[in-house]
Amino acid sequence: MSGYFDIPSDLQxxxxxxxGLHLREALLPVLAGLVLALPLAQLCVRFRWLYPPVLGVxxxxxxxxxxxxxxxxxxxxxxxxxxVMIPLAVYSLVVLVPAIVxxxxxxxxxTLAAATxxxxxxxxxxxxxxxxxxxxxxxxxxxVATVSSISLVSVGALIGNxxxxxxxxxxxxxxxxxxxxxxxxxxxAVLAIACDAALVGLRLLLTPWMPRGTATRRPxxxx
Amino acid sequence: MNVLNFVDAFFSDSAHWxxxxxxxxxxxxxxxxxxxxxxxxxxxxxxxxxLTGHTxxxxxxxxxxxxxxxxxxxxxxxxxxxxxxxxxxLPVMIPLVVxxxxxxxxxxxxxxxxxxxxxxDAARGMGMRESRVLFQVELPVALPLILSGLxxxxxxxxxTATIAAYVSLxxxxxxxVDGLYQRDYEKVVGGATLVAVLALTTLALFWAAGRFAVxxxxxxx
Lengths: 223, 221
Prior knowledge:
heterodimer, A: mainly alpha, MetI-like fold, disordered C terminus, B: mainly alpha, 10 helices, ABC_transp_perm/SBD (chain A), ABC transporter permease (chain A), transport (chain A), MetI-like_sf (chain A)
């Protein structure tokens, strides 16, 4: 069993250290994507004509393969963590913008009118009414972004040992120790599922008004 | 622009255009892997998604399965299976299919489930059998969303098929992986450009397929 956690010394890290590194390389970009996506989405909601072109550009950006993205960035940022994190931030942004726009747009007009009638200014209305109601859509986007980000960090191993847990895969081949690859895959998957569960928990905390248990069902149809 | 010089140098070198390691051959390999993986994923995802979407049952199970499949790192899975099963096509197909099934399955389920119930009930009232309700009413209305699921699956496959090169298979990833080892930056950037162009072509193809296949009445909404 000890073979699974016996990390080769050339990685210069412990198993726990690799997990920390992996989480940092995966989650900071999601955070950066969120910080950029919120104002961008708000602009798209405010100026409707802006949304189709933004959606087009982000779809094209999402089509750029991660490996190609990493490689092109090496020229500017070198074989560093930043090279892995910039594309992941862009992918997060691409997933989050439509999620937030759809969520904010789904707030009913009556609710907005009620908030305005109660004397809410635009900023307070956004922070206290629109954003909380958009939380389910926002968290759904965050879940996809986070899980795919955690999975994609491993590819960083291809550009000079920047893949955190993914580096174990290269080590598994180099030293002919398959148990390291098992460790890498299982740990990455568990990290992804744990972060996913944490986000679901966060959503439950933030949306006490949502019906619990069985979610929205299609109304029963007469067969 | 440094990168553009590399791109130019790569594509203007005639040695890159023919032979065993030539662009046409690598491109063909890449397209073959991608089509095979997309076909397999669609063969699993579409029927299951249509059926569960039609009955409206099993959504929670599907969501759970999709999350689990998404959580598996494609690159890790590739290396692991390659070590276990040897270096052939199977280790590449498994991660690609695992990667592509969730978007197809979940989007198809959501698309069919969220079809306006009024025309579906009208179709039943007219005496259509369930299979005809599914294929002649629900499917055409749900098609734009189903295509978007297939599109995101196809794009992810095309970009991820590059990692096939890591387990000594062909495809456009060959240029990136070999170039990185040989410190031949021109080759790396050339390969990356080809993959990006192929992904964008896929995007364009799906856009065209949508224009062609989606009924005008559905498109207008």
